[in-house]
Amino acid sequence: MSVAPHLHLPPTDRILSSRTGWTRAHWEATADRMLDALTPYATPGFAQYRLPGRNSWSGVVSDGLEGFARSFLLAAFRIAGAGGAVDPALTERYAAGLAAGTDPSSGEAWPRLTDCSQQLVEAASVAIALHETRPWIWDRLDARVQERVADWFSGFVGGRTWDNNWRLFQVVSEQFLASVGAPYSRSDIEGGLDRIEDWYVGDGWYTDGSGRNFDYYIGWAMHLYPLLWARIAGPDGDGGRAAVYRERLGRFLEDYPHFFGADGAPVHQGRSLCYRFAALAPVWMGALADCTPLAPGLTRRLASGALRHFAERGVPDERGLLTLGWYDTFLPTTQPYSGPASPYWASKGFLGLLLPADHAVWTARELPLPVEESDTYTALPAPGWLLHGTRHDGIVRLVNHGSDHNPLPEAGGTDPDAGAGEDDPHYAKLAYSTATAPESAPHAFARNIDNHLALLAPDGTPSRRRRIHPVRCEDRVAASWSAARLPGDERAYRISTTSVLHGPWEIRVHRVEAPEGAVVREGGHAVAHPTSPFATSGPGWALARTADGLSSAVVGLYGWDGGPEDAEVARDVEANAYGPHSAVPYLRSAPHPGGVTVHVTLVVLSRDSVHPEALRSAVRVRVAGDAVTLGFLDGRTVEV
């Protein structure tokens, strides 16, 4: 694919950057285009940027502040990274915005910081940007403006935030107050930093608040803000905490490159995906904090590959704007708190511009990603994930047996779903990938077919996967169980699933409790494209393939005996972030006899040719009671 010409990028450099062709100049040009594109949407005093698109639940003024604050991050990295040698209009716009935004009489004043308000999120971006650009903006502000800015930030002091990554917004903002000699609360800062210790689960992983909340917030929030705080506090003011944060980020980054496909795409999982390449923030922070285990050439290859991936697919768009979606606008990828400027948290992905132009990450030759060198298998026990990448097609798949975005169950409770919220397509699925997205539009998720095993009620209502109870995650095997409920039936039926990886395949072994007459249904990956995917099916198998050769297939290996209509492909429109036409292959069982049954499914997502009929003989399945043995053509056997 070719990068959109409206970005006005310099020529590619295939000597320095053999994989992507991108250099620091490409990053600067992209940042400049994104910043210039915002100016038509600024209020007269530049305190707000009111962008086109659906408003958030916080209202138009808060959304306007979000436009200022999040783009200020991008401007700050650009200004500081260039040592102030940028178009003076850029620094003047944000200096003017600070003056107008904190002036109650300007007509553009920002909302005051109140407990748990959206303004708290945006204030943290302003604080970070002010710190990084201090010689060029803060130090040159009129003293009265400085006082007003500090007074606005003072709403944090002693205030309450949500008990998750929001605690860190208070930490960095009050540390900025401390750095400019304004009143602040040391207990707020220490309390916030102490609180995240409760959420550290090992191997570089945090959960975002209490519960099994694992997604990109771990990288672009839980690792990022503590080390940004350390930059503001300075080496004499971090109390030794920064060394701990650097060690944790280093461990996190050991596995992180395995989340990216050869085409630069991150795995599509979790909330706030409209932030897109904000997922690069921990990669750049590892280099900035000198704690990364990644070679400089790998750091840049990963980052440039991801940024170019989106640029090749119309991000930013022809106006130079980031829209509410993944590639094009797609609101089901967003949350109610997402406003038209929310995507500009993608600014975090430009953190690398703070590294000087002669730093090794900009001057070393690019190195290949793990998936470009070999097939990869990565077990992540903390979040309960398996990652597997295949070199021949560059796809990375994530098998999910641990992240459900729900609070932990109460100790001693008997209901496995007690306290759990509604399931979410970006957390509840059995698998995600760099080449696919879940069917997340409400009408499609109501059917809940893709990457899900459901019990179907007589009226067709599917059971949900709400709370995930992890059991095992090691080598190429992960397992979990969840409760399935049907309308009018108070019982929670236990569904236990073990995933076994082999090459591009995932073999799912299910132990299913169900009432008599229920139907078991399982879907594979949803594939999407601008044109309708090809679909075909046969006894015990179904396949969908896009025009560009991405195939998704499911093959029933054991327990699928639903008759002539036991395998089909479900189609949908405007249901998927990857394209307007989507398709999901799925299997259906015969009516359940009641009690416990075993079902074994081969799930394939590949850019290779896929022949489902032949794959049926590629895995031998032997079931003896509760033991299932899988035998592969290369002689490997796995007992589940």
Molecular structure report:
- With 640 residues, the protein is an alpha+beta fold.
- It has 15 helices and 22 strands.
- The chain has helices at residues 24-38, 60-81, 88-101, 118-132, 143-153, 166-179, 186-197, 217-233, 241-255, 281-288, 296-311, 360-363, 370-373, 442-447, 612-615, and strands at residues 200-202, 205-206, 376-380, 385-390, 395-400, 431-433, 453-456, 469-474, 477-484, 493-502, 505-514, 519-523, 527-529, 534-538, 541-545, 551-558, 567-576, 579-588, 595-606, 619-624, 627-632, 637-639.
- The strands form 5 sheets. An 8-stranded antiparallel β-sheet has the order 8-9-10-11-19-16-15-14. Strands 7, 12, 13, 17 and 18 form a 5-stranded antiparallel β-sheet that branches.
- A hairpin with a 4-residue loop joins strand 4 (385-390) and strand 5.
- Helix 2 (60-81) packs antiparallel against helix 3 (88-101), helix 6 (166-179) runs parallel beside helix 8 and helix 8 runs parallel beside helix 10.
- The two termini are 43 Å apart.
- 58% of the residues are buried.
